């Protein structure tokens, strides 16, 4: 699901937990764009949680969805989401 050391670093730096990132995939409206990096297909997904926009970077590894990063959405990501979902 994720690298535990990376989860701890993100929590310390941003106060965001990868456990909360799982909420992004609970059926809510989600804007996803592809992002290729280091010979790996990655995805950048943005959604609204409790009135704030968040972005999770993730990929498929070994048939499992793996979270790479979780952060507040950037202005362009927020804007793209609002253009699609209002």
Total beta strand runs: 4
Structural class label: alpha+beta
Q: Count of helical segments?
A: 3
Give the helix proportion (percent range): 25-40%
Largest sheet: 4 strands, antiparallel
Distance between the termini: 30 Å
Written as H for each helix and E for each strand, in order along the chain, the element string is: HHEEEEH
Structure explained in plain terms:
The chain has helices spanning 4-14, 18-21, 75-85, and strands at residues 31-37, 40-49, 52-61, 64-72. Strand 1 and strand 2 (40-49) form a beta hairpin. It is built from 3 helices and 4 strands, in the order H-H-E-E-E-E-H.
Quick structural gist:
The protein is α+β, with helices and mostly antiparallel strands. It is 30% helix and 42% strand.
SSE diagram, text form:
Layout: H1 4-14, H2 18-21, E1 31-37, E2 40-49, E3 52-61, E4 64-72, H3 75-85
């Amino acid at each position: 699901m994720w690298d535990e050391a990376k989860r701890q670093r993100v929590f310390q730096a941003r106060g965001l937990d990868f456990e909360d990132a799982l909420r992004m995939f609970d059926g809510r409206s989600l804007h996803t764009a592809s992002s290729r990096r280091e010979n790996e297909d990655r995805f950048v997904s943005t959604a609204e949680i409790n009135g704030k926009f968040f972005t999770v970077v993730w990929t498929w590894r070994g048939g499992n969805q793996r979270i790479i990063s979780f952060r507040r959405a950037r202005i362009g990501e927020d804007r793209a989401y609002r253009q699609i979902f209002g």
